[in-house]
Amino acid sequence: MIEYRESTIALLNSRMKTDDYSNLAQTKLYVVQNRSLNLDNYKNMRELRSRDSLDKLSQSQKIQYLEDRLQKLSKLERNQIPFEELSKEVKINYENLTAFSFSNVINSNFSKIDTITVFSIRFNDSLTNEATKLAEQKKLQNWLKLKLKLDTLIVKRIN
């Protein structure tokens, strides 16, 4: 094998001196190689494979982490309420309201945690009829349940 390397180097050197490659006549060819035949290629390959495996493991862990994070964010996104649009519709449909707010309230009875969607409303001060306020509140609650596809939500009066 060493003879083959030497002969290849000699052939390349001689070709550089020919007329076909006259621009390379002053060029010196340096070949850097290990002349020892006792290389442990298997050991080197094992080391490379081990390093590649660690890279793949690290990438797999990153992918798993990102997938978990995406799942949590998707769950949060599903619970988002398009408040700006909703607020505009409420203003058009319920002219007796002066304020409309939204929040998710997290409750715990120390054995389980539950999140409840709560809307707070304020009626015009000129609306004094309690029956009308209750009817409007109930109507708004039913409409919000239908619009947001929620089973449970609370509409709370501020005044």
Which features does this protein show?
159 residues, alpha+beta, GMP Synthetase, Chain A, domain 3, 3 domains, 3-stranded mixed β-sheet
Description:
- Strands 1-2-3 form a 3-stranded mixed beta sheet.
- The chain has helices at residues 2-16, 41-78, 83-93, 130-148; strands at residues 97-108, 113-123, 153-157.
- It is of the alpha+beta class.
- It folds into 3 domains: 1-39, no CATH class; 40-78; 83-157, GMP Synthetase, Chain A, domain 3 (2-Layer Sandwich).
Write the layout of secondary structure elements.
Layout: H1 2-16, H2 41-78, H3 83-93, E1 97-108, E2 113-123, H4 130-148, E3 153-157
Précis, in short:
The chain is an alpha+beta fold and 159 residues long. The protein has helices spanning 2-16, 41-78, 83-93, 130-148; strands spanning 97-108, 113-123, 153-157. Helix content is 52%, strand content 18%.
Low-confidence stretches: none
Envelope shape: elongated
Oligomer type: single chain
Largest sheet: 3 strands, mixed
**Total domain modules:** 3
- In angstroms, what is the radius of gyration? 38 Å
Structural class: alpha+beta
